[in-house]
Amino acid sequence: MTRFVVVVDTQEDFMAAGGALSVAGAEALAKPMRAWLAALDPQETAGVLFTFDTHEEDIYAGSAEAEAFPVHCLRGTPGWANVLDVDLVDPAIPAWRIEKGVFDMWAEDGRMIEDARDASRVPVPRDSFFAALWAQGVADVAVIGVAADYCVRWAIDGLLARGFRVTVPAGLTRGIARQIEAVAVEDFGGRIAVTAG
Question: In this model, does residue 5 exceed pLDDT 70?
Answer without folding.
Answer: yes
